[in-house]
Amino acid sequence: MRTSLFTSILAFLGLSLLAKGQTNTPTTPSIRLKAYERVFVSGVAPSPVIEVGGKETKVQVIPTKPVYYIYLIANKVPYIKIERIWIKQQLYTATITKVASKPVLIENGKQKDTLVRYTDEAVWQISIKDKVTNAATKSKKDIANKVAANELVLRLNDKNGCVYTRVAKTFTKLEPAPGM
């Protein structure tokens, strides 16, 4: 009696484990967001002014419109399309292109800064185009709350119709660069 009960329990556990292993539950892909902001100043990059007596003072610079460097690092997502992108509570249009060379580097004077380290995952760059001025683009309450609380909100979808929302609380500030 005990042996048959024990055998039945083992058979049940084995079948349930086998059934769990064969179910095709889709895994949620990993999509990470990297967001950088750089201002360009006319002339040369700002440096402190040293006055008589050795006191340093910062020079006030007049920055131009910032340039945004936005990257997605995605695992197991073969296709991504941008639905909407909000930067500092403004809606923009954007394009997305797959980055061919990794790591992603940017010139910073004589140095290079690494924006995205080398990875085996796919990396996409998001290029901001124009500000959307159409008043008919009211967002839903959950998105409106995210837009109000974050500097960057990105809505994406994949070829299966899954929608992803990624946010960045703030942009990582890069060193100012000489004017464009």
Please tell me about this protein's structure.
The model has no long low-confidence stretch (mean pLDDT 79). The strands form 4 sheets. The protein has an 8-stranded mixed β-sheet, with helices on one face. The longest helix is centred in the N-terminal third of the chain and has 21 residues, at 2-22. A hairpin with a 4-residue loop joins β11 and β12 (163-168). It has one domain. The protein is built from 2 helices and 14 strands; from the N terminus they run αββββββββββαββββ. It has helices at 2-22, 141-149; strands at residues 30-38, 40-41, 49-50, 56-57, 67-75, 80-87, 90-98, 104-108, 111-116, 122-131, 152-158, 163-168, 172-173, 177-178. By secondary structure, the chain is an alpha+beta fold.
Helix content: 10-25%
**Measured distance between first and last alpha carbons:** 85 Å
**How would you describe the shape?**
elongated
- The average pLDDT is 79
Instruction: Count all strands and give the number.
Output: 14
Structural class: alpha+beta
Number of domains: 1
Strand arrangement, largest sheet? 12-11-6-7-10-5-1-13
Order of helices and strands: HEEEEEEEEEEHEEEE
Radius of gyration: 25 Å
> How would you sum up the major sheet?
8 strands, mixed
Spans of 5+ residues with little confidence (pLDDT < 50)?
none
Strand content: 35-45%
* Number of helices, where a helix is a run of at least 4 consecutive DSSP H or I residues: 2
